[in-house]
From TrEMBL:
Chain segments annotated as transmembrane: 41-62
Protein's recorded name: AB hydrolase-1 domain-containing protein
Lineage: Eukaryota, Metazoa, Chordata, Craniata, Vertebrata
UniProt keyword DNA-binding present: no
Superkingdom assignment: Eukaryota
InterPro entries given in the database record: AB_hydrolase_fold
Bias type Basic and acidic residues, positions: 16-28
Keywords, alphabetical: Membrane, Transmembrane, Transmembrane helix
Keyword match Transmembrane helix: yes
Region of interest (Disordered), ranges: 1-32
Length: 358
């Protein structure tokens, strides 16, 4: 009896299995296809993320290597200043005194384009890129010149040491006029003290550095979201392309960040050198100012900076020649280059007349 009852049961189970089998076979491919579709979406998404994260930096690096040679200014030269360092120097015009232009904080020598072209018709005018900016290669972290151990990285003391070695290596004869803007002005004053020569921003630059390193800057330039600082009808296409190259160059942006970060330390170095070695009486100082420090910042900040500048000039340059340019701010170098050039030409004429009388 058990065998008879068990046998039909086994037969029924087999029949039920046969009935369920087709349904299961119909569901299984659907479920399997659903699983494959989900996995394929994840794989494709991963590929897209991989392309976005990896490809732009590699393309940007390859483009920088090619453009670094193509966009080097034709009249410029890479000067070996010793200690394993090489700096970019661009001189135009002939005559004396030589005018040396030092750029604002974190910027390349291209900002002086208009001023250099104008004053070069009167005398020799040289621009240069500080170490790590523009076409002046920065030493790797494991390399050292020894000077940063004394002055610190990206500070006035180290920059002035670089500039002095550049002047010597390029055989730029005295007398010369040092012209600087922002950090470049610190450098000029520090140089004059040592060698008796004649003459809320940081996060933004950190974002620029990150954007350049990831290749985002190049994409934004292509889309027209980022434009060069120096532009206009009289600016050559070469200068425009050079600025785009530097906006995409993480090495340039990194040095710009460092210069802004150590700006207060550079100012402290200038104050210290004033105490230990007063400015020589042979050095004449002219200070060019505008109506405001930066027209893009709030009025109360402009007033604060203007007051600080006034006190600084009274304490440091009591006998300085004050030159005011109406409607100008810290961007006067490339926003109002004709006004700056006019004042520089006047200073050069005065110096040339003095040399002739001597």
């Amino acid at each position: 009896m058990r065998r008879r009852t068990e046998a039909p049961a086994s037969s029924n189970e087999a029949d039920n299995a046969d009935k369920k089998g087709p349904d299961q076979r119909r569901q299984s491919p659907a479920e399997a296809n659903g699983g494959v579709s989900y996995r394929s979406v994840l794989i494709n998404l991963g590929k897209c993320l991989l392309l976005i994260i990896i490809i732009p930096p590699f393309l940007n690096y390859a483009s920088l290597q090619r453009e670094g040679q193509m966009l080097l200014p034709k009249d410029g030269q890479i000067v070996d200043v010793g200690l394993g360092q090489k700096m970019h120097l661009l001189c135009k015009g002939q005559g004396k005194p030589v005018v040396i232009l030092d750029s604002p904080t974190g910027m390349s020598s291209d900002v002086w384009f208009h001023v250099q072209e104008s004053v070069a018709t009167l005398t020799k005018v040289c621009t240069y890129d500080r170490m790590g900016l523009g076409f002046s290669k920065r030493l790797m972290p494991n390399e050292t010149t020894g000077t940063e151990k004394v002055w610190g990285m990206s500070t006035t003391g180290r920059m002035v040491d670089d500039l002095h070695r550049l002047i010597q290596a390029a055989s730029i004869a005295k007398p010369f006029i040092l012209v600087g803007s922002e950090l470049g002005a610190f450098n000029g004053r520090f140089y004059s003290h040592i060698h008796d020569a004649y003459g809320k921003v940081l996060p933004t630059f950190q974002a620029r550095q990150f954007s350049a390193a990831t290749g985002l800057s190049r994409m934004l330039i292509i889309l027209g979201a980022i434009e060069p600082t120096v532009k206009g009808e009289n600016v050559s296409e070469e200068v425009v392309q050079r600025q785009k190259y530097l906006l995409s160059n993480p090495a340039h942006q990194s040095s710009a960040v460092d210069e802004h970060y150590f700006l207060n330390e550079s100012a402290a170095q200038v104050r210290d050198i004033t105490k230990f070695k007063p400015l020589s009486s042979r050095v004449s100082v002219s200070v060019i100012t505008g109506d405001s420090f930066d027209e893009q910042v709030p009025a109360h900040l402009n007033q604060m900076v203007a007051e600080l500048q006034r006190k600084f000039l009274e304490e440091s340059y009591p006998s300085a020649n004050q030159i005011h340019i109406k409607g100008a701010d810290r961007r006067m170098i490339y926003k109002k280059p004709s006004a700056v050039s006019q004042q520089l030409r006047r200073l050069v004429n005065q110096r040339q007349a003095r040399q002739q009388s001597e």
